[in-house]
Amino acid sequence: xxxxxxxxxxxxxxxxxxxxxxxxxxxxxxxxxxxxxxxxxxxxxxxxxxxxxxxxxxxxxxxxxxxxxxxxxxxxxxxxxxxxxxxxxxxxxxxxxxxxxxxxxxxxxxxxxxxxxxxxxxxxxxxxxxxxxxxxxxxxxxxxxxxxxxxxxxxxxxxxxxxxxxxxxxxxxxxxxxxxxxxxxxxxxxxxxxxxxxxxxxxxxxxxxxxxxxxxxxxxxxxxxxxxxxxxxxxxxxxxxxxxxxxxxxxxxxxxxxxxxxxxxxxxxxxxxxxxxxxxxxxxxxxxxxxxxxxxxxxxxxxxxxxxxxxxxxxxxxxxxxxxxxxxxxxxxxxxxxxxxxxxxxxxxxxxxxxxxxxxxxxxxxxxxxxxxxxxxxxxxxxxxxxxxxxxxxxxxxxxxxxxxxxxxxxxxxxxxxxxxxxxxxxxxxxxxxxxxxxxxxxxxxxxxxxxxxxxxxxxxxxxxxxxxxxxxxxxxxxxxxxxxxxxxxxxxxxxxxxxxxxxxxxxxxxxxxxxxxxxxxxxxxxxxxxxxxxxxxxxxxxxxxxxxxxxxxxxxxxxxxxxxxxxxxxxxxxxxxxxxxxxxxxxxxxxxxxxxxxxxxxx
Length: 604
Description:
This protein is an alpha+beta fold. The chain is built from 26 helices and 16 strands. The longest helix has 25 residues, at 550-574.
C-alpha cells in the first residue's frame, strides 16, 4: 500500500467533479452536481457530487466515495491502480507511484501462525504423493481431478499418524502454541495429534491468497463426519472467507459474473467446464462479510446451491440477503434436477454443465418456482402470506406485459384469481413489512411482540447524529473517546474507529474525502459499505449546528435507548414457549416499566 502522505497528496490534487466528468456527463444543480449513476441501471440522475466535500453519493443504489474510489469502482481496478490513474489524470508526479506494490504492516503476532500453516500446507501436498497418500490420489482420480488441478487448488493428504504431523512442524521450528493456534492439534493421551489425520485436504485461503485453514474429507466410511473444518482461529473465520475467492476475483471483473456454489468440488467442476469465476460457501449460509466480498467483485452474482430441499431453502434465504444488500444477482434454476454441478459434470460432461449453469432466472421466477415445485403452499394462510409478500414488488413493475406475466405466475403458485392479485396491486399501498422481516413459517409475527424494534430505531438515530458530529468536529471525537467509546450499530462503530485513527495521525479538521481513502486503503471486506455509509451520514442536512451540548445530549439519548433496548430484548426472549395470554401479560408488564421510566425522566 502507498504511504498515507502520498495518498492524501494525490487526493488533494484531484477535483472530484473534473474526475467524474471525464467518465460520464455531469450536470450542475445548485451548489452540487448530478449525473446518471453508472453503478446501476439509472433512468433519472441519482448520483449527487459535492465539490465542497469532494465526495459522491448515489441516493438510489447507495454507492458512495471520493474521486479515487469512483475511478476504482468505475474501471474495476485495485485501489492502488486507481491512485496511479487519478495521479496521471491530474498530472501529479511522485517517484513512489512507479513502484509496483506496497504492503501494509502485518500483525507481528500472526506471523508465526502464517509460517506454521504454510509449512503444514506444503506437508499435506507432499503427503499426497507418497505411498500412503494413494488412497487420496485414487479418490481424486475417480473424480477426474488431474495433477494440474491438484496443484491449482493445493489439494493434499494428512497421514494417518497424526503425531508425525506435529513432529514435522516442531522440527521446522514451530512451537506447540503456534500449532494449537492454527487449529489442527488434537489432544490425546499419548500427546498431540493432527485432527485431520487420514483425510483428503482442501486448502482454505483468505481473499489475499494466504493459507488460513483446511477442510478435511474422510476417505473411508467409518462413521465419522464427512468433513472436518478448521475451527475459528486468529487467522481463520469461516464467515469472512469464500473458497477460491483469491482466484475468482481476478477473472470475475472480466467475465462480468461470479458463481456462488455450495461445495469445493462444484468449484472444480465449473473450472473443468471453463468457468473460472466461481466461489464456494462451505455450507448454505451467507454472512455479511461474504456479501461484502462479493460486492467488491462488482459483477453479477449467480447463485447455485444444491437442487435438494436444503439447498433450495438456502437460496430462498439468500435472496432476501442479496436483495437487502442491493447486489445484482440471478439464480441457477433447473427444477426437478437434484444433482449438484460436480454430479452433472461426472454424469453428463462439460457441455451439459455449462448449459445447466446457463439456466438463469431472476429472484421472482425462482421464488415462484420454489412455491410450485419444492414447497407447495398447503393452507390459505400460507398462500395469503406468499401473495402479500410479492405485492410490493409487483407495484414497482410498470403496468404492462411484464407485470401481467408476473401476476399469472403468482396466481398459479398461490391459487388466487388473477383479478384478486391485480386488485391488491392497484389498491393503495398499506404499510407492509419489509422483505427481510417476513417469516413464512411463523404463526405469530406482529410488531407488538417485538418491542425491541422501536428502540433499535431510536438508538440508531441517536448514534447517527453523534457520528455526524464526529465527522464535523474533532472535539466530538474526543468526547466520544471519553464518554461513549462504542456504538451499538456495527458499521457506525467501525467508522468511529477509522475517525479515531484519522484524528490520531493528522491535525486540523476532518476531511471526509481523506477519511474515505483511509477506509478504501484498509482493504476491509466491507470497505464499500463503510464508504457508502460515510457519504450518507456526511450528506445529512437535518442535524442542528454543533455546540458543546451536542455530544452530551447524544450520549444521554444513546444510554437511555440502550437501557430500553436491553429491557425490550429480554422481554422478547421471554416470549419463547409462552401462550398468547402469557405474552399479553409480559407486554403489559413491559409497558408499565416504560411508563415508570418516562415518569422518572420527567421528574428528573
